[in-house]
Amino acid sequence: MTGRVGRWTGVKKEVVIMLYVLSQTVGCYAANQLPSSDVQQNGMSDNMLNNQRVVVHKDDISEHAEKSQSMVYVKRFQLDVSGIEECLPPPKALLGKYSGRNLAVNDLQQLTKALSVYYRKQGYPVATAFLPRQDIVAGIVTIKVFPGVLDKLRVKNSTSLEDRFVEGFLKNLYAGMQLRSDILEMTLNNLNALPGVQAKGILEPGDKIGSSSLTIVLEASPIVEGAVYTDNYGGKYSGRYRYGMQVIVNEPLRSGDRLVIGGMLSNEKMKNYNLGYETAVNRTGGRLGISCAESDYTLGDYFTQAGAVGTAKTVSLYGSQPLSGRKSGNLRLIYGYEHNRLNDELRVFDYTARKSSDVFHLGLTGSLKSAVSYSGYSAVLRAGNLKLRSWEAQAADEFSRTEGGFSRFNFDVNHVSKLSKVTQFYIFAHGQLANRNLDSSEQFYLGGADAVRAYPQGEAGGDSGYQATAELRYQTPVKGMSMTLFADVGEVLARKDGDTSDPHRRLAGWGIGAVYSLDRSLYARLDYARKIKGESYRSEAEDKNGRLWFRLYKLF
């Protein structure tokens, strides 16, 4: 089954836990990641950036204006922006508003303040515009814009990280440098990406005119975090009801590392285990990790008579590297390799199908943020090779022809807009494009709690496809309680070679739901979905017009 990127890409500590919780089931009964409506902050507030001393000189212009009944004629303005990027366009509309007329001292001061705000929004958080001493010639007035420099850098570290380790992340910050938002925000993002660390920056006026002092504050999160959960997001034959736990140990070696241990059980004796470790590999936010997972399942219902059991084992190496990191958005390179071994047995018939695959992936993931919206996205290319290791697997593959090399491209987009104080609108979309027939473990599925909710988990598998959801969410007067109205749709295309049957399926549904979140420690969700156009189930014998889904988890 295709691995879905979380609907919500930002990511606070509880979201990290959720991602580990929801990524451990393999095969067509895998659970997808749950979105979060929290918008990740970079630790530096606007007040911190803008709380600067702005120096406006009392100059000859002011004196001349006072002598001329506080008015001076300005034909046009000339900006002195030395130290600021030349490619940054001047605010012509703003300057034009004040050009070609008589201006009072207050008008000039309003203009310098507006210019300061403009250049701060362009990435110079302490930029200051002022009127230097000058002689006015032919109505031309010069305004100087000083970008601002770093005076002193201080670090307050209350975490378990060693100071010299933290200092490696601050190499781009030094006394005398120009203060730029991209450098400050990237540094804070890289620090916040460390497990068990919450970083923020505080800017204060420096000892010199036009300078600022920066204090980096590092606070520790709990060393041990985790979650226990239950849901009915599983498949009918592998176990619809699931119970699990994930535990995260932050900074076990005090080097920006994390240890993850987890497990899950289902009501049909399906068992999942996972163990992972990752650490920082550079001081620019790069990370490497290794993980292993195993799933043992026994299929229930009428599969019980055939003795249907199986195992899936996965070992993964993965890494990531930030390419950009701003309060308004970020971009990260992701890459990795995984080795999979799959065994499916029908013990009554002494049947064992053994398969293995080696898969590499490379992609990008990022986000865009504003005051009223958030967008997350990812694009990942996967290329691998499937080997059939038993005659039973080879016989079953004569028709589907999945053995050998394959590639697939996966994309994921999510967006949330704030419509009012109590309403939000969500859009989720993800899809897959494959170059050939795929094994069921690599296919894209439409049905499930995180897809078309009117259909069961594992319904409508295919090699290529898409799925999209639109959801309106209303926050009720009850604290933490929201009501939802949603619509889901998706299409898949399967068996492009050697099959004369219809390879195309389209599913759609709509429904209502409720979400309850208490102090970011307790989360519950309930969804009821019904079909649109009523296509029958093919993954389960008993067809239904509606489905009820629930999820409950507790963070600790």
UniProtKB/TrEMBL annotation:
One of its GO terms (cellular component) is type V protein secretion system complex. Keywords: Cell outer membrane, Membrane, Transmembrane, Transmembrane beta strand. It comes from the Bacteria. Residues 210-514 form the Haemolysin activator HlyB C-terminal domain. Residues 80-148 form the Polypeptide-transport-associated ShlB-type domain. GO terms for biological process: protein secretion by the type V secretion system. InterPro entries: Hemolysn_activator_HlyB_C, Polypept-transport_assoc_ShlB, TPS_OM_transporter. GO terms for molecular function: protein transmembrane transporter activity. Pfam families: POTRA_2, ShlB. This is Hemolysin activation/secretion protein family protein.
